[in-house]
């Protein structure tokens, strides 16, 4: 019985020594880390920040008058978009790859997530029935977006053939 009691006390003493050693190691590690940080040898890591980005899309090209083009832009992203430029292009041909014959530039104001902006461009002396149109929002590609490939819309519905 004394042998078992002695063995149990020895085991408890050993566990206590291990706990003390671990606590000292932990304290040394914290002191070492603080010393390295103070010396500039260890950089603090900031938590990652998730940034919500905007996604500007030309949603509509319409023609309210014979010499007017109306363009609607939507920020369908989760982040706010700063102001940017919208290009309204009268194309030299009837296809989307046609070169622009004339370009009008409109400033698009900053758009909060989910918001729309509509601009009406006077294209006189041109007439909407003369050619195809293309609209390109963020024409200078200054807005970082979730999708950089959906910023334009083509329409040839008014082309006289």
Describe the protein:
This protein is an alpha+beta fold. The chain contains one helix and seven strands. The chain has two domains: 1-45; 56-155, Sandwich (Immunoglobulin-like), CATH 2.60.40.10. The strands form two sheets. A four-stranded antiparallel sheet has the order 4-3-6-7, with no helix packed on it. Strands 1-2-5 form a three-stranded antiparallel sheet, with no helix packed on it. Strand 3 (84-91) and strand 4 (100-108) form a beta hairpin.
Largest pleated sheet: 4 strands, antiparallel
| Overall shape | rod-shaped
Q: What string gives the helices and strands in order?
A: HEEEEEEE
Rg over C-alpha atoms, rounded to the nearest angstrom: 33 Å
Reported by name, the CATH topology of the largest domain is Immunoglobulin-like
CATH superfamily of the largest domain: Immunoglobulins
Q: What are the low-pLDDT stretches, counting only 5+ consecutive residues below 50?
A: none
What's the arrangement of strands in the largest beta sheet?
Answer: 4-3-6-7
Structural class: alpha+beta
**Number of structural units classed as domains:** 2
N-C termini distance = 110 Å
């Amino acid at each position: 019985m004394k042998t078992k009691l002695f063995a149990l006390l020895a085991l408890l003493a050993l566990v206590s020594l291990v706990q003390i050693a671990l606590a000292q190691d932990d304290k040394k590690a914290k002191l070492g880390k603080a010393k390295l940080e103070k010396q500039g040898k260890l950089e603090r890591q900031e938590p990652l920040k998730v940034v919500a980005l905007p996604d500007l899309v030309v949603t509509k090209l319409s023609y309210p008058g014979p010499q007017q083009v109306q363009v609607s832009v939507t920020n369908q992203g989760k982040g706010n978009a700063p102001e940017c430029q919208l290009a309204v292009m009268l194309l030299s041909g009837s296809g989307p790859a046609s070169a622009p014959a004339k370009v009008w530039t409109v400033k698009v104001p900053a758009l909060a997530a989910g918001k729309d902006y509509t601009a009406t461009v006077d294209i006189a002396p041109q007439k909407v029935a003369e050619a195809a149109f293309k609209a390109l929002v963020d024409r200078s590609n200054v807005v970082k977006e979730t999708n950089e490939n959906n910023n334009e819309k083509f329409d040839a519905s008014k082309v006289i053939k």
